[in-house]
Amino acid sequence: MTSHPDTPLTVAGREFDSRLLIGTGKYRDFAQAGAAIRESEANIVTFAVRRTHLGEAAGEPGLLDTVSPEHYTLLPNTAGCYSAKDAVRTCRLARELLDGHSLVKLEVLGDENTLYPNVTETLKAAQTLLDDGFDVMVYTSDDPIVARELEAMGCAAIMPLGSLIGSGQGIQNPYNVRLIVEQSRVPVLVDAGIGTASDAAMAMELGCDGVLLNSAIAHADDPVRMARAMQQAVRAGRNAFIAGRMPRRQSASPSSPLAGRING
Questions:
Q1: Residue 85 annotated in active site
Q2: Which of 26, 85, 105, 124 is catalytic?
């Protein structure tokens, strides 16, 4: 039997046990968010800098009360930014608030209707942030050429969308995702569009290094149980990818041998 041992997810030189990255938005409250995050067993937790209270005001509950930097790697993101200038400013603000934190998720959107990435502004922002010493995990389209360019610039991880943010439509173009995986030497994580556990498993079976999601858990009837399902799906998909699926066949192939069969 051939064994293919797994290796940890490594981003910008840091190793992580979990390949599921989870967001903090859209939950009923911080308590529900905290319970779901714990159940997910995620190591990396992302949050929108422009929308999240980090506890700057004394006496008010903040994200850091729920997600301690001692237990999680915080991943500030630039959700809600529509230009490279705004995204860069937001990352610099996050670095100041988090005492020099350099790992960020870059997200520059094209319009409010689709939340599709603005590739031109994304490339511009990525170069500025990289020049400024940030480790950039970048949300982008599922275009393999754009992904290759972002990697060549020095981005720490490429994060193509599965489908539109918050749509729950799953991976609409698995062929492009696979192309990105096959050409990349940095981690590839599906970001956006995951709706349920089978979508997360598919991303991992395609060879992705991880999955980042938020709405699929936060909008579930039972977010905590869905967080557990996502954790299990990511692990199952990763194991299936490493194990190697059977070949697809055009005809049936019996699972029981015919040789030595007793004929009546």
A1: no
A2: 105
